[in-house]
Amino acid sequence: MASSQLKVLIVGAGLGGLTLGLLLEQAGVPYTILEKHAGDLLPLGSSISLNQTIQPLFEQLGMLTELEDISKPIGSMTFLKESMNKIGSLDLYSDCVRIMDRPSLYKLLLSRIPSERIITGKRVCDLEQNRDGVLVRCTDTSVYMADILVGADGAYSSIRRCLYRDLRASNLLPKSDMAPLAFDHHCLVGVTDPIDPIYFPELTRPTCDMMVVIGKDKPYSIRQEHHIRSSDWGPAQVEEMANACRDFICPYGSTLADIIDKTPKERMSKVLLEEKGAAQAMLDAVSLANLLHELPSTSAQDIQGTFEAYYKDRVSMGKAAVQGSRHMGRLSGGHKWTETLIRSMFLNILPSKVQQTILDKMLHHRPQATFLPFVPDRGEFKAKSQVQSKRIRSLSGLCLRLFKQSP
Known about the structure:
The chain is an alpha/beta fold. It has a single domain, classed as 3-Layer(bba) Sandwich (FAD/NAD(P)-binding domain), CATH 3.50.50.60. The protein contains 12 helices and 16 strands. Strands 3, 4, 5, 6 and 14 form a 5-stranded mixed beta sheet that branches. The protein has a 4-stranded parallel beta sheet with strand order 7-2-1-11, sandwiched between helices. The chain has a 3-stranded antiparallel beta sheet with strand order 8-9-10, covered by helices on one side.
């Protein structure tokens, strides 16, 4: 089947939705991205780290140099007590993990998507599936149809809500999916104005060394289950949280007040630390794009087979990512005596070679777009093998044009 015969609708222009759109653009698969926010797309959030699992894709797309330009390699993660006494440190091997501000990454991905592919101000309120495909209705009464619908609209997805409604009506929704989402970490994030390097010289270094302060009995250092209410996330709650944190000691000097005061209020937000983040959504996009490129036809049977293959490819990876995130969250912020003991043992007793082996296994799955020329597999620990598509393609559109313009 020619890829151009397939039509894909993506709901949500976040990092996952943009990555899928970018890949479908290169695969020659027609797609449209519906974004609920009207007007210009605003890149929100603070920082995000990308490890070697996703960097090969950026190299394939001719974007690795730009990714490196907007990021810094992370050399280590150091854990401190509130007294600033060192608990221990974890070597992250700076060539594997890079950290950047989320808006810069968002702008980089957005720069490769043709503007006509994204329609803003489209809040999906309902969907309907039939033999002809899938139909979505938006709150402004507009309607869109496609062969495949992809929900990339976050934790409180309108697409998931509609699917769960239909599954519940058919008595097919598992009990575990009926419970409301619960998160165990609150975060205050923001994008600051440039901070004077005289006061924070560490910020001028070529590498980023992360500092984690394990507070004791502080308002936002105790893990607890929390069910979401929209009233918890307004400007007043952000200001309340910022004020409660102002006097916290900053490992880079002085207190958090200096950083908070340098951050415009409109760039600050209160968020929940999710256990499966944007990096996993980007990896999901690679797997799905590879399968859609090889889709034999738009028949219900072939589409079902494709999504079964997608589930088989990603379910174990998704579960491992959630478990890994939980363990990392407990390592970096747990307050129970068992968590404190495990943190101390992991950082100070476990040999660095064992730590490296654990990290290497986490980086085993480094997928590339099978329909684009593969880039070299870097590193001593080899990636999981992939089969190259028989219908190989070259870079096209904005990716090719901007790649040729880069120095």
